[in-house]
Amino acid sequence: MNNAITLSTIDRDRIIKETIYKNAYDSGAGVKYTRIPLYLLEVPSFQRPEQRNVKRIAENWDESKCGAITVSYIEGRFYVTDGQNRLAAARLVGKEDIYCMIVQESYEESARRFAAQDENKVKVSRYSKFLALKEANDKVAMGIYDVCQRMQIRLDPDVQSAQDRLRCMSEVEKIYLIGGPEGLMWVFETIDKLKWRYSIGAYKSPIISGLGSVYEKFSPCAGAAQNIIVSDMKQYNPEGFMRKFNAFNDNAFKRQVKNYLYDLVMKNLCAHNGAEEVG
Length: 279
Fold this sequence. Notes:
Blueprint: H1 2-23, E1 25-28, E2 31-37, E3 41-42, H2 54-59, H3 63-66, E4 69-74, E5 77-82, H4 84-92, E6 97-103, H5 107-116, H6 126-135, H7 139-150, H8 169-193, H9 205-218, H10 222-233, H11 238-242, H12 250-278
Helix pairs in contact: 5-6, 6-7, 7-8, 8-9, 9-12, 10-12
């Protein structure tokens, strides 16, 4: 009996959505406008979490100033691709429906459009873009995700209490594009061999980008380069290692770490090769 009730509810909502889409005002170019009940609107998984300004939007609610929220009509479902904070605020003030601009596109197209946007008042983070591209089956994003899964690297930089969270997606993407999955694996394996996995700062951009630059320059002898780095840096934890450098911003730290690691590996490789020639 309960199954019958559930099925009839699903069928009813499907019919309502189809009717709403069919009767919405068509402005041309595949874009329609209409009001949609809030309970029929879904937020896709690649969207950012609700921001702290939802309460402020609700307290100052004025729908005439909110504008239409953007909704993708995908396989009979309405997904909010721009306006989830306004949707949350509308629910807080007890609204039953909201004015929407409906576009017809695939789930992958919606995810890619989200990843490409930069004009929002709250800028889309690199991590949010990465999640959207993963949902869109982007090869690079899927490859990075696969490496992180294999290495058990956690990908939630918004959780500040965890020490082993990867927090520099831009650097990770650069490493993957240059060195492929092997290069990214090498970086994570080096951190593991240093026993830094659960240390504060190990997955921040100066260290990640520095190790990535070593792999880029010394990939033919990556194993030897890794041994040199581990032998030199195992005496430190990440914070102790970073205290070796004097910089005022992240970019300066990255340059200094890259230069240090390059000189370290180059000096030791030259010494090793010289010893082999003498021998």
